[in-house]
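User: Show me a protein chain along with its predicted structure.
Assistant: Here is one chain, sequence first, then structure tokens.
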Amino acid sequence: MRCATLCLVLAGALARTRPSEYIARKKGAKTRGCLGECSAEPHLGEAPTQFTWAGHLTDDQPSMLTAVLNQHIPQYCGSCWAFATLSAFGDRIKLARGGKGAEIQLSIQHVLNCGWAGSCYGGNPLAVYEWIMENGHVAYASANPYLACSSDSTEGFCGHVDTTCKDINVARSCDTFLDNGGSCTALTQYPNATIKEYGTVETEHKIKAEIQARGPVACGVAATDALDNYNGGILDEDPDDGQENEMINHVVSIVGWGEDKGIPYWTVRNSWGEHWGEMGFFRVKRGNNSFMIESECVYAVPGEFTVKNFACHENSGNCGNSKVCKGKSCGHGASLARDEGFQARSRKQVASRSLDANATAP
């Protein structure tokens, strides 16, 4: 009997090959940070039955959410902790702007390259916000798009990509092909966002209050087979999954809540693409800490963020590219650097911290 039980356990372990993407914080680690005085905890009176920042179709309200993203391409990377936190943070920036202007996407790759919160092998969501506050800012994704790589990953093409923390791996621009005299450079000025407060929140009522008052939150969740294979509807725990229902291994963002046929639920955005679930979202039973989703949520309050940028030229000659050929005779994209050693030298350029974040959230 013991052998049979052990074989079943081993078979189950082999069947679940996706590693945990969640790394718990050390006992006694800081759970809140503020620039200045921390704000009071939001309180909720009588909560509405339905509330979501995705928009109420019956009220014809626009969505205040940023896009659903996919952490699994161009290759697998266990970076849900960065996706959930930056998506929720981006939502709050969108809320601060009243939904006006082009959507701002924050650079997950900046966090992977330079943050100490985690890598493609997992991370901690609260540590993302702590790192951004400590670093001073996070770049926008247009200057550092997602590669699904970290310095410790060799998956796919990651072994051939430099993702170490250096200026050119924070924010960069390239003007044309090297064979045409082009160059890539670290930007000395680039759009970015800052955080003025972050913290944790747990239990249904407090999570509701935080979401309604300030926007979506990122939460740890036990991603069992029930979540992996979700086909829609209100998700509930499968008793056959046993202790796996209580093991946080993934991070998502709660954007609202509702009730369907008397069953209360959370509306949750995942980072597995719009082909998964309900256009990238899922609903999960609310009020009983299903899949541990009400036990560890984190939030961040936006500080300053860029809405009017310092205008770098295409060749970045005014934003750190010292190899640019100047003058009309140089032609489009021309550069002084044409030799093979150019790329190595360009990585050594020193870029100052951006001073572009010039709009303050209310």
